[in-house]
Amino acid sequence: MLRFVLNVLWLIFGGGFVLALGYGVAALICFALVVTIPFGVASLRLASYALWPFGRTLVPKAGAGVVSGAANVLWVLLAGWWLALSHIVAGVSLCLTIIGIPFGVANFKLVPAALWPLGQEVVDAP
Description:
about 10% strand, about 70% helix
C-alpha cells in the first residue's frame, strides 16, 4: 500500500509525468530514425519506470552482451546524457525540501537507468 501511495505522490509532486514525457520524446525520435528502434523500445521501458519507480528496480537482462554495451555508448551520446541531466536537476531541486527527499532519491535512482538502458530490465523489487 505504501508503494502505491508513494507512486501516486510521485506522479503529482515528484515530476514523474514530466520525466516520462522526456523518455517518450526520446522514443519518438528513435522510432522516426528507424535504425534506432531498439533505443526507442528501451526509452519506452524507462518511461514506464519513470512513471512508477517505487517498488521496482533495474536489473541486468540475462543474455545481454557486448552489442548492448556498445549500443549503450551510442545511447549516452545521443539521448542518455540529457535524460540523466533532467533526473539530476529534478533530484537536486526535490532534495531542497524535507518532504521532497524521497522523490529526489528516486530521481537519483533513475540516473543509471537513463545512462545505460540497453541490456537492463525493470522488475518488481522484493
